[in-house]
Design a protein that fits this description.
Elements (H helix, E strand, L loop, with lengths): L2 E5 L4 H12 L3 E6 L18 E4 L5 H11 L3 E4 L6 H6 L1 H22 L4 E7 L22 H20 L2 E7 L2 E2 L8 H13 L6 E3 L5 E2 L2 E2 H12 L7 E3 L5 E2 H11 L8 E3 L17 H7 L7 H17 L22
Parallel strand pairs: 1-2, 1-4, 2-3, 4-5, 5-6, 6-11, 7-10, 8-13
Antiparallel strand pairs: 9-12
Helix pairs in contact: 1-7, 2-4, 4-5, 6-8, 6-10, 8-10
The chain binds NADPH dihydro-nicotinamide-adenine-dinucleotide phosphate and guanosine-5'-diphosphate-rhamnose.
Guanosine-5'-diphosphate-rhamnose (GDR) binds next to helix 6.
Amino acid sequence: MKTALITGITGQDGSYLAEFLLEQGYRVVGMQRRSSTETVGRIAHLLDRIELVQGDLLDQLSLIEIVKQYQPDEVYNLAAQSFVPTSWQQPVLTGEFTALGVTRMLEAIRLVKPDAKFYQASSSEMFGKVREVPQRETTPFYPRSPYGVSKVYGHWITVNYRESYDLFAVSGILFNHESERRGLEFVTRKVTHGVAKIKLGLARELRLGNLDAQRDWGYAPDYVRAMWLMLQQDQPDDFVIATGRTHSVRRLCEIAFGCVGLDWRDYVVVDPLLIRPAEVDLLVGDASKARAVLGWEPTVSFEEMIERMVDADLRFLRGDGAPPGMVGSPPCASDRPAAS
Ligand code: NDP
Ligand code: GDR
C-alpha cells in the first residue's frame, strides 16, 4: 500500500484528493495546522479512513518529523494562503506560506526521503498580465498579486530542486477549479451561495467587484485526478490543467441566477471596494500537453458545475441533504428577509 502525504487536506482540493487516493487504495496522511476551532468540515466524512497529523508550512522541523514518521511515497503540497485579495493585506505571511513553505517541504524530502514524489500546487495566477492566449507551459509569467508572485517562486523552486537534486518534483499549473466545497469568498461559490440566499428570501442583493474578469473555470474533482496522474509518469514534468474555455464573471452571474429563474441584473451590485489593486483580466489555458501525455480530460462543463453548485447551496441553506464536505454557515439572524 502506497502512502500519500497531503498538506492542505482541510481545503477544497485536499478533501477531493484524499477521497480520490483512498479509492486508489492509498494510505492517506493529512497534515493539518493547529487551530483553536474545528477546520475539518470538508473531510468530516473521511475521518475514519485518513490519518491527520499536526504540522505547519511555517515550521521546518514539523515537516521533517512528519516525513520521517510516515515515509510517504508521494507528497502533495496543496497548503497555501490561497485567496488573492488577502495577499495584498498579508503579503509577507503569504510569501512565508505560499513561497517559502514550498522550500521547507522540499528540504524535508531532500533530507529525509529523496525518493518521494512531490507535487506542487502551482497556479494560472502566475501568468497574470496577458502575454499569450491561450496560456501554456511555455508562456512567460507576469504575476499581478503577492499571491501570484509567491506561486512563481514555488514553481521555480520546485523546478530547481528537480534539476539540482534529481528529485521527482513536478509543478501542476492549474487554472481555477471550483465545486460545492469551494470557500465562500471565491467568486463562483459567492455567486451560487448568493443566488440561493436570494431565491430563499434570505438576501436581497449580491455585491461583487470586477464583472469583466474572465476565467477558465473547471470542476475540482477532475483537477485532483490530474495531480495524481502527474506523479504516475516515468519522468517528472510540469503541466497546465485547464478546460480551454473562458467566461466572464458577468456570464457566471447570468448562468447562476438563470438556474433559479432570476435575472442577475435585478440583484447584482458592483462594489468598488471589491475591485483589486491589480487585476488578471483574462485566463484561458491550453492543456494539450496534459491531454497527450497524461490522457487527462475534464468531464464536467462550466454550466453543469454552476448548476450543481446552485443546487447544492439551495439544499445546504434549506438544511436538506446537501452533498458531503460543504462549508459555510447556515442562515443566521442577520440575514435580511427579502420582503422587509
Ligand atoms: P483552500 O484555500 O481551500 O485550502 C488551503 C489549505 O491550506 C487549507 O487546508 C489550509 O488549512 C492550508 N494551509 C494554509 N496555510 C497553512 C500553513 N501555514 N500550514 C499548513 N496548512 C496551511 O485552497 P484550494 O484547496 O482551493 O487550493 C489548494 C492549492 O492549490 C493551494 O495551494 C492553491 O493556492 C492552489 N491552487 C488552487 C486553485 C483553485 O482554483 N482552487 C488553482 C490553482 C492553484 P486551514 O484549513 O487550516 O486554513
Ligand atoms: P482567483 O479567484 O483570484 O482567480 O484565484 P476568485 O474567485 O477570488 O476571483 C476570480 C475573479 O473574479 C473577480 N471578482 C470577484 N472575486 C471575488 N473573490 N469576490 C468578488 O466579489 C468578485 N467580483 C469579481 C476577481 O476580481 C477575479 O478576477 C483563484 C484561487 O483559488 C487561487 O488560489 C488560484 O491560484 C487561482 O484561482 C487560479
